[in-house]
Design goal:
The structure holds three protein chains of three kinds. By secondary structure, chain B is mainly α. Chain B has helices at residues 12-17, 21-44, 62-68, 71-104, 110-117, 125-138, 145-168, 174-181, 186-214, 218-223, 231-241, 245-268, 271-275. Chain B folds into two domains: 1-44, no CATH class; 63-275, MetI-like fold (Orthogonal Bundle). By secondary structure, chain C is mainly alpha-helical. The longest helix of chain C has 34 residues, at 68-101. Classes of the chains: A alpha/beta, B mainly alpha, C mainly alpha. Chains B and C meet through helix 1, helix 2, helix 4, helix 5 and helix 6 of B and helix 1, helix 2, helix 4, helix 5 and helix 6 of C.
C-alpha cells in the first residue's frame, strides 16, 4: 500500500508540474518567442538584442533553441497560432516558408533599420526574411602542415584531388544544411558546371577523411589533428584560433566564397510587436555587439568594426550570396546525386 | 558456450551459482567495453582545456561551474527527469495489464494485437515526431505538455510491454491457479501473486523506458516549448555551435543522476530483489 | 505456451467474465495507440501520397521501389540490423547469464555497468567513440605502441557496428537476465540430480527456457538498430547509408516531407512484417516442440 501511495504521489507530482500553455493574444502579449541556435548564439541574443526590445516594449522574450528544419516544421503545423514569433530560418527554408505564405513581409515602416541593409540581403527573399549576420566559407589549416594556404577554391580542390594534402582533409557533405551551396560554390569554379563539380569532388574524395555533416563534428576532426585542412565557416574558425590555438590559420579563398546567412523573419499571425525585435536586432549598435560576440559579419552598412575585430570579420565583398531563387529547386536532386555518387 | 565448472556434483545449485572463471573474465572484458566511451567523456569533463580530448589537458572544475550556474542546462535537466518518470509510470500502467491479458488470453487475432502493440518500435522516431506535431495541432493539443508526454509514452510503452511479456510467458500459471482456488479474486491474484513474479520484467522495462525517454530527442525537438525543453534538446542545440567540455560536464551530471536514481531504487526496494524476485 | 493454458476455465459464464477482464486489460493501451500512434502514422501516410505535381498517388513509393539505390539502402538497413542483433545476442547471452547468476553487491554493480551506455546522450557518446576509434585515437595509439599496424575503425561499417552494439547490448543483456531470473531453478536442479552434465543441463534446459529473453532482446535491438541514424551520421560515411538517415536528410536539408514519409511508412511495414514473421515462426516452433 505504501508503495502504491508513493507511485501515485510521483505520478501526480510529475503531471501536476506540467506547465499550462496559454493562448497567444494578438493585442498585448506578455512575451514573444524568438528562435535562436544554442550556445553562443543564445548568449548573443540575450545580451545584445533582448535588452533593447524589452526596454522599448516592456514585452518579455522567450528563446527557443533548435535548428532551421525544426522551426519550419513547427510553424507549418500551427500556421494560425504559431508557436514561434520571430524565426531564424536558413536561406532555403526562408524561401520555402515565404512561398508557402507562412511569413510576413517587412517594410521600412515596420522595421526602420531595414533601410541600412543592402538589397542582396533581403530582396531575393521578397522581404519575407532579412539577414541578421553572415558567415563566409573558408579553409582552416594546420600551419605546420600547410606551408602556403590555397589562394583560390579551384587551386584547393585540384590540389586535394592531386593528393597534395594527403588523406588529411575534411569538407562539408552535400547533405549538410549548406551542403548544396557548397556544391554550387565548387561548380562556380568550373564555369557553373555542376557535373564538373561532382566529378572534381569525387576525385578529391579519396583524400577526404570525412565529409562532415555537423560543424561540431568538423571542429572535432581538426581539433584532434585528424585533418590538416578543413573547409569551415570564418566566425567559428577564428573563435577556435583565438582560444589559444596559434597553430591553426584561416583563409578565405578567392575569387569569391559563399556567404551563409542567418535570417530573421516575422511569422504570419505573430503579434505585431515582433517587428520591434527584428528592428532591435538590425540596429547598428546591436549588430556590432553581435559581431563582436560571434565574429560573423553583419549586413548593416552603418556598422564600423573597431580595430580589434576588423581583421577577424569578413568584408562583405569577399563573399557572394548564391542565387537561391534559381538553384534551390535543384537542391533535392543534388542531395540525391551526392548520396549515390560520393560513395 | 559457457563451460560450467562443477565444484560439487551432489549440490547442483552451488555448481551453478559459483560463476565459472571464464565467464568472470568475459564479464570484466565486456564491462570495460561498455564503460570506456562513457568514461572518456567523464574524464574530459574535468579538463581545464577548451576541447574534449584524450588524454585531457589539466584538471579543473570550471566546466561544472559553468554548467551548474547555467539555467540553459539545469532547467531542462529537471524537465527531462520529470518527463521520464511520468512516461515510465504511464507506460507501466498501460503495458502491464496488456501483457497479462496477451499471455493468458486466447482470442482470435492475438498475434495481430501483439504486433500492433509493438508497432511503435518499427516507426522511426523522426517520422513519429513530425506526424505527431501535425496531428496534435489538428486535435487542438499543439504546444502542450500532453502531446510531448503522449509521444514519449508511445515510444516507451513497447519496451515495458515486451520485457513483461518475455518474463510472464515463462511463468508457471499453476501458482496463480492455486491462489484462485484458495479463493482470491482476479485482482487480488494479479496484485499479490502475479505482480511479484513479473517484477524482474517490470523493472527491466522501467529502466529501458526511463532511459529511452531521458535520451529521446526527435519528439522533444518538435514538441517542447521553452518551458518544457528537455536535456537532450538543449545539449543538441548547444552542440550546434559549441564543442567544449561543458557538454561532457552536463553528461557527467546526467550519469550521476541516473546512478543515484538506481541506487535509491536499490535502497528503497533493493534492485536485485526487485529485479530478480524469484530467489 | 500461453496458447493452451486457458482451457481449464470450464463454465461459460466464467469464460465470459475472463474475456471481459482481458478486454479491460488491453483496452487502455489500444486506445492510446489508436490515437497517438495511428494518428501520426495517418498524417504521414496522407503526406506520402503527395506527388510533386500536386496530385495524390503512389509516386513517392514508385520513387523508392523503382530505384536500385533505395532498394540497396533498404537491404543494407535490414542487414545492418540483423548483424547488430546477432552480435548482441552472442555477446549479451553470457553477460545476461552472469548478471542473473551473480549475487549481492556484485549484481548491483553489474546492473549499473550494463546500463552505462544508455546514460549518455547519443551525440556525446559518439564523440567518446571518436576519441577511441579515431586514426590517432586511443586504440590506434595502443596498437602503434605495441608495434602493430593501425586499423581503420572509423567512417566505415566497423565503427558504426561497434558503437551500435555498445549502446544496444544493455537491451539484450537485461532482457536475457530478467528471463533467466524467473526461470524455475528446480528444473535445472532436477536435471542435475538425474545425472545430466552441467553442459548438457545448460544446452537442453537453461538455454531453451531462456529463449524468450533472447527474443525480447532481439526485437528491441533489431528495431532500435534499424531506427537510429545519429551514430551512422557521425561515425559512418556516405556509403554506410541507412533508411532513417535518408529520412532525416529529406526532412532537414531537402525539406521533402512526402518522400520522407513514404520511406518511413515503408520501414514501418517492413519491420512490422519481420516482427509478425518472428512471432509466427515462434508459435510454429513451439507447436512442433510440443
Amino acid at each position: 500500500m505504501k508503495r502504491k501511495l508513493l507511485l501515485t504521489a510521483v505520478l501526480v507530482s510529475a503531471l501536476g508540474l506540467a506547465p499550462i500553455t496559454e493562448a497567444q493574444t494578438d493585442k498585448k502579449p506578455d512575451k514573444i518567442v524568438v528562435a535562436a541556435y544554442g550556445g553562443i548564439w543564445t548568449e548573443s541574443v540575450k545580451k545584445n538584442f533582448v535588452p533593447c526590445f524589452e526596454k522599448k516594449t516592456g514585452v518579455k522574450v522567450e528563446i527557443i533553441t533548435g535548428e532551421s528544419a525544426d522551426w519550419l516544421a513547427r510553424i507549418r503545423a500551427n500556421p494560425t497560432r504559431p508557436p514561434i514569433d520571430v524565426v531564424a530560418l536558413a536561406e532555403a527554408d526562408s524561401l520555402r516558408a515565404g512561398r508557402e505564405g507562412l511569413l510576413e513581409q517587412a517594410t521600412v515602416e515596420k522595421v526602420p533599420n531595414l533601410a541600412d541593409i543592402p538589397d542582396q540581403f533581403h530582396k531575393p527573399w521578397n522581404d519575407y526574411s532579412i539577414t541578421q549576420n553572415m558567415g563566409g566559407l573558408g579553409i582552416m589549416y594546420n600551419k605546420s602542415a600547410v606551408a602556403k594556404p590555397p589562394a583560390t577554391w579551384r587551386e584547393f580542390i585540384d590540389d586535394v584531388a592531386a593528393g597534395k594534402y594527403g588523406k588529411r582533409v575534411s569538407m562539408p557533405a552535400g547533405t549538410y544544411t549548406w551542403g548544396p551551396e557548397f556544391i554550387w560554390l565548387i561548380s562556380q569554379q568550373y564555369g557553373g558546371d555542376v557535373d564538373m563539380a561532382f566529378k572534381k569532388l569525387k576525385e578529391a574524395s579519396k583524400y577526404v577523411v570525412k565529409f562532415w555533416n555537423t560543424p561540431v563534428e568538423a571542429l572535432n576532426l581538426f581539433g584532434t589533428k585528424e585533418v590538416d585542412a578543413l573547409v569551415y565557416w570564418d566566425g567559428r574558425s577564428i573563435n577556435f584560433i583565438d582560444k589559444g590555438n596559434d597553430w591553426a590559420g584561416f583563409t578565405l579563398p578567392g575569387p569569391k566564397t559563399i556567404a551563409g546567412l542567418a535570417m530573421l523573419s516575422k511569422v504570419k499571425n505573430a503579434p505585431a510587436v515582433s517587428w520591434e525585435y527584428i528592428n532591435c536586432a538590425l540596429a547598428p549598435e546591436n549588430q556590432l555587439k553581435h559581431a563582436e560576440t560571434i565574429l560573423y559579419a553583419v549586413p548593416n552598412t552603418k556598422v564600423v568594426y573597431p580595430a580589434a575585430i576588423k581583421d577577424k570579420v569578413m568584408a562583405t565583398d569577399k563573399a557572394v550570396v548564391p542565387p537561391y531563387d534559381q538553384i534551390f529547386d535543384k537542391f533535392g536532386g543534388w542531395i540525391e546525386r551526392w548520396n549515390k555518387e560520393m560513395r | 558456450m559457457v563451460a560450467i565448472e562443477v565444484t560439487n556434483r551432489s549440490d547442483g545449485r552451488a555448481a551453478l551459482t559459483g560463476l565459472p572463471r571464464l565467464l568472470v573474465v568475459y564479464t570484466i572484458a565486456i564491462s570495460v567495453f561498455l564503460i570506456a566511451p562513457v568514461l572518456i567523456v567523464m574524464i574530459a569533463a574535468f579538463t581545464s582545456g577548451d576541447f574534449i580530448m584524450f588524454p585531457p589537458g589539466g584538471f579543473s572544475l570550471r566546466w561544472f561551474d559553468q554548467v551548474l550556474s547555467d539555467p540553459q542546462f539545469i532547467v531542462p535537466l529537471w524537465n527531462s527527469v520529470r518527463l521520464g518518470i511520468a512516461a515510465t509510470i504511464i507506460s507501466g500502467l498501460l503495458a502491464i495489464p496488456a501483457a497479462l491479458s496477451l499471455v493468458r488470453g486466447v482470442f482470435p487475432g492475438r498475434r495481430w494485437v501483439e504486433t500492433f502493440l509493438l508497432a511503435p518500435l518499427s516507426l522511426p522516431t523522426i517520422i513519429l515526431a513530425i506526424g505527431l506535431l501535425f496531428f496534435a495541432s489538428r486535435i487542438g493539443l499543439s504546444n502542450s505538455f500532453i502531446s510531448l508526454l503522449a509521444g514519449h509514452v508511445i515510444i516507451t510503452v513497447p519496451y515495458m510491454l515486451r520485457t513483461v511479456l518475455g518474463v510472464y510467458a515463462g511463468v508457471n500459471r499453476e501458482v496463480e491457479e492455486a491462489a484462485r482456488v484458495l479463493g482470491a479474486d482476479r485482482w487480488r491474484t494479479a496484485w499479490y501473486v502475479t505482480l511479484p513474479i513479473i517484477r524482474p520484467g517490470v523493472l527491466a522495462g522501467a529502466i529501458f523506458a526511463f532511459l529511452m525517454s531521458f535520451d529521446e530527442v526527435a519528439v522533444a525537438l518538435l514538441l517542447t516549448n521553452s518551458d518544457t525543453t528537455t536535456l537532450p534538446v538543449s545539449i543538441l542545440s548547444y552542440l550546434v555551435y559549441n564543442y567544449d567540455p561543458a557538454v561532457a560536464a552536463i553528461s557527467t551530471i546526467q550519469i550521476v543522476i541516473v546512478i543515484v536514481a538506481l541506487l535509491l531504487l536499490e535502497r528503497l526496494f533493493g534492485i536485485r530483489h526487485l529485479m530478480f524476485a524469484s530467489q | 505456451m500461453a496458447i493452451s493454458t486457458q482451457e481449464t476455465v470450464t463454465d461459460g459464464r466464467k469464460a465470459g467474465r475472463a474475456n471481459l477482464g482481458l478486454l479491460m486489460g488491453l483496452a487502455p493501451i489500444i486506445l492510446m495507440l489508436l490515437v497517438f500512434l495511428v494518428g501520426p502514422i495517418w498524417v504521414n501516410f496522407i503526406e506520402s501520397l503527395q506527388a510533386p505535381d500536386g496530385s495524390r498517388n503512389l509516386h513517392q513509393y514508385a520513387r523508392i521501389f523503382g530505384d536500385s539505390y533505395y532498394l540497396i539502402v533498404i537491404a543494407q538497413t535490414l542487414g545492418f540490423g540483423l548483424a547488430v542483433t546477432v552480435i548482441c545476442a552472442l555477446l549479451g547471452y553470457p553477460l545476461g547469464f552472469a548478471l542473473a547468476r551473480s549475487e549481492g553487491m556484485v549484481k548491483s554493480l553489474l546492473i549499473l555497468v550494463v546500463v552505462t551506455p544508455l546514460m549518455v546522450n547519443v551525440v556525446v557518446r559518439s564523440f567518446g567513440w571518436m576519441v577511441i576509434l579515431g586514426g590517432s585515437g586511443a586504440l590506434n595509439a595502443g596498437l602503434v605502441a605495441l608495434g602493430l599496424p593501425k586499423l581503420e575503425l572509423m567512417y566505415n561499417w566497423t565503427g558504426v557496428t561497434i558503437a551500435m552494439v555498445h549502446v544496444l547490448l544493455p537491451f539484450m543483456a537485461l532482457s536475457i537476465a530478467s528471463t533467466l531470473e524467473t526461470l524455475d531453478r528446480r528444473i535445472e536442479e532436477a536435471a542435475m540430480v538425474l545425472g545430466a552434465a552441467p553442459r548438457s543441463v545448460f544446452l537442453h534446459v537453461t538455454l531453451p527456457l531462456s529463449m524468450e529473453g533472447v527474443v525480447t532482446g532481439g526485437i528491441l535491438v533489431f528495431t532500435l538498430a534499424i531506427g537510429s541514424f545519429v551514430t551512422v551520421l557521425l561515425l559512418g560515411k556516405t556509403s554506410t547509408m541507412v533508411l532513417p538517415l535518408l529520412i532525416y536528410q529529406q526532412l532537414t536539408t531537402s525539406s521533402d516531407w512526402p518522400f520522407a514519409a513514404a520511406m518511413g511508412i515503408t520501414l514501418l511495414v517492413l519491420v512490422s512484417l519481420v516482427l509478425w514473421l518472428q512471432s509466427r515462426l515462434r508459435t510454429a516452433a513451439m507447436g512442433a516442440r510440443r
